[in-house]
């Protein structure tokens, strides 16, 4: 860069925040080729910083690379318990946490069996952390610093996987507007505090990108803006793609769970809780259905909502449903709601299949480490 270097640029140069794929490229490269360029802005930095810190501490091993995702995954299970307990009760929280812990696709992410694994795992965690802080604010303790932290957690979700994190604004609005406890002025103030926490986290990185790497940043944001027009890297599918993916992710009972939750939303004292969870569960599927770029992992930010809804449906059927006819349906449904997630776990983890040989990439790493 020409001219005198600003003080803050000198600071940036002294800490390892320059986002590179190939730090010292020896061959010509295309700035807009995300798999072979020098400056790498295709994904935000938070998940990558976690991996980098782990490698710095524990060394360049596969376990060090995986450790942040494992920590995110374990903490997300705790958050699911806490959210379920606050919205309903501890039994709902425990059952929802169990469903979270055995979810095959989330385990596959933590194990690196699905692409974009680190990014998705961090994104799921920070979205859920933001929701937990919102729920804590609106149901437990109305301290504005908690709402500021909720916005900041949403900002970290944005810095994990860009715009899908905007779901936190919809959930915050629902809690504020439909709780019927606040005036319009109070809702606006709460919204500004939440937005402030969000912006405090994202503005420094966005500004850094635009100032230091304007060409690469322009390309990245251009692709994001075209997600509803152009399918990125052949990730295209029919408008009903996410309907089928809900079955893939949450099992055959998912639509029964959603229908019951919708009915109880209007007949139950926990109307706000069910509405919050339904929007959290369905908004990503609805919003991304209109986009040309489609991928099933986009729905995982809603996974905790499905776990809590499933837990609440199971407990409600067990404790309150007393069918006068076809009494065999009750135990059948209760067993199905527990067994189907276990079947999905076995199916995703392939416990009974012969393990595949390591890829050439891993064989080369092992050979290098053994020399």
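^ structure tokens above, recovered residues below v
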């Amino acid at each position: 860069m020409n001219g005198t270097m600003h003080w803050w640029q000198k600071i940036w140069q002294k800490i390892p925040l320059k986002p590179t794929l190939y730090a010292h490229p020896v061959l010509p490269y295309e700035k807009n080729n995300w798999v072979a360029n020098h400056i790498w802005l295709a994904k935000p930095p938070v998940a990558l910083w976690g991996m980098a810190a782990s490698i710095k501490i524990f060394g360049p091993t596969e376990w060090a690379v995986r450790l942040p995702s494992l920590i995110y995954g374990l903490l997300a299970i705790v958050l699911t318990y806490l959210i379920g307990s606050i919205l309903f009760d501890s039994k709902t929280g425990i059952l929802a946490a169990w469903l979270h812990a055995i979810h095959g696709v989330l385990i596959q992410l933590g194990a690196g069996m699905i692409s974009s694994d680190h990014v998705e795992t961090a994104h799921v965690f920070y979205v859920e952390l933001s929701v937990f802080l919102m729920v804590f604010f609106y149901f437990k303790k109305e301290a504005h610093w908690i709402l500021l932290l909720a916005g900041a957690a949403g900002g970290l979700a944005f810095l994990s996987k860009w715009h899908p994190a905007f779901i936190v604004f919809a959930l915050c609005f629902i809690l504020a507007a439909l709780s019927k406890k606040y005036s319009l002025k109070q809702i606006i103030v709460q919204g500004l505090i939440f937005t402030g926490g969000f912006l405090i986290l994202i503005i420094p990185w966005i500004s850094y990108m635009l100032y230091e790497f304007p060409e690469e940043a322009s390309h990245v944001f251009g692709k994001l803006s075209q997600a509803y027009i152009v399918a990125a890297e052949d990730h295209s599918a029919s408008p009903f793609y996410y309907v089928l993916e809900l079955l893939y992710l949450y099992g055959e009972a998912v639509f029964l769970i959603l229908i019951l939750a919708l009915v109880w939303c209007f007949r139950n004292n926990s109307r706000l809780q069910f509405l919050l969870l339904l929007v959290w569960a369905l908004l990503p599927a609805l919003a991304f259905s209109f986009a040309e770029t489609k991928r099933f992992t986009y729905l995982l930010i809603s996974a905790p909502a499905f776990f809590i809804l499933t837990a609440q449906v199971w407990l409600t059927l067990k404790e309150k449903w007393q069918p006068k006819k076809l009494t065999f349906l009750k135990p059948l449904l209760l067993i199905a709601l527990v067994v189907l997630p276990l079947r999905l776990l076995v199916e995703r983890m392939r416990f009974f299949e012969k393990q595949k040989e390591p890829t050439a990439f891993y064989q080369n790493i092992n050979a290098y480490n053994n020399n």
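The chain has a mean pLDDT of 84.
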